[in-house]
Amino acid sequence: MLLTQTPIDQYVQVGSVKTRFWQAGQGKRTILLLHGAGGSAEFWYYNVLVLARKHRVIAIDMVGSGRSDKPSASYSLAFQAEFIRDFMDVMSIGSAVLVGHSMSGGAALQLALMAPDRIEKLVLVGSFGLGREVTLSARLATLPFAIRSLQPAPSVMRPMLRQNVFDVDRIPQEWIDLRYPIFALPGRKEPLIQMARTNLCLSGVKESVYQPIVQNLPNITAPTLIIWGKQDRIIPIDHAYIAAKHLPNAEQPLLLNQCGHYPHLEHPAEFNQAILDFVQV
Fold first, then answer.
1. What is the DSSP string of the chain?
2. Which distant-in-sequence residues (6+ apart) come within 8 Å of 10 by Cβ?
3. Residue 186 — pLDDT band, cuts 50, 70, 90?
4. How confident is the model at residue 3 (pLDDT cuts 50, 70, 90)?
5. Listed residue (146, 162, 147, 48) closest to 99, CA to CA
6. What phi-psi label fits residue 31: left (phi over 0), alpha (psi between -120 and 50 degrees) or beta?
7. What local confidence, expressed as pLDDT, does residue 150 receive?
8. Is this model's pTM higher than 0.70 or not?
């Protein structure tokens, strides 16, 4: 599973946001890899170069995350969707295959409703925005004390990942070492808190956030692949069935066993092949 190289950091100005991204490969189709809340391009470390053998692949540090700028903003799904669209404009990408994980899955769905012509195909990976249920730790992030946390240290990385993955011991140490400098960046927490307060409440995802998406799923006509970990403790697998039932051009969901919230990190070979097969059709 080791890579021979790490993609080079590149930056582009998206409005007022200096935005970091990885880019590799060439091809008629562009695949945009969009990480979940608080993530970074590193979450696609085992995917970018494999997918880039046949396609142009770009992994973005979303606004407020990774090494991209972290403005004070609402971080609503609409705000994040507009950022994705603006990034595509700056990069002269008319339409693309969007692979949205977790929160960015919700943003990709929002973009599909706002600007359907920008999405050639859609991949939802443990996607946000399909129901109320979400892990308790995410709901607690809406509380005033949530801004307090342990001082970042390499030793906390595996314990923090434990609830997110099926078996934290399967996560390579090289990835932990790659991810830690991003995790320890200053200013990382504030956008996460604002994102939580905008989209969540103590009982789960706000109805005003997920209901408009769920009600409009039949209007999203882009071919869609749904990928979910059967043991996802962050967003329940029931949400995969909601998407599969109501998206008119959804394929049979790929449900991975012994897999938590990060299929692309926990089962990269199966994940990559599923994406390649889907995009090639």
1. ---S-PPPPEEEEETTEEEEEEEE---SSEEEEE--TT--GGGGTTTHHHHTTTSEEEEE--TTSTTS---S----HHHHHHHHHHHHHHTT-SSEEEEEETHHHHHHHHHHHH-GGGEEEEEEES-SSS-S---HHHHHTTSGGGG--PPP-GGGHHHHHTTTSS-GGGS-HHHHHHHHHHHT-TT-HHHHHHHHHHHEETTEE-HHHHHHHHHHGGG--S-EEEEEETT-SSS-THHHHHHHHH-TTBPPPEEESS--S-HHHHSHHHHHHHHHHHHH-
2. 20, 21, 22, 23
3. confident
4. low
5. 48
6. beta
7. 46
8. yes
Residues 172-191 have a mean pLDDT of 90
Q: Is the CA virtual torsion 260, 263, 268, 271 positive or negative? A: positive
DSSP per residue, 126-162: S-SSS-S---HHHHHTTSGGGG--PPP-GGGHHHHHT
Among residues 108, 162, 163, which one has the least CA distance to residue 136?
A: 163
What is residue 157's predicted lDDT score, i.e. its pLDDT? 85
Domain map (residue ranges) of the chain: 10-280
User: Residues 21-70: pLDDT tens digits?
Assistant: 999 999 889 999 999 999 999 999 999 999 999 999 999 999 999 999 99
User: In the block, which residue shows the tokens 């790659």?
Assistant: 178
Q: Which CATH class is domain 10-280?
A: alpha beta
CA–CA separation, 43 vs 61, rounded Å?
Answer: 10
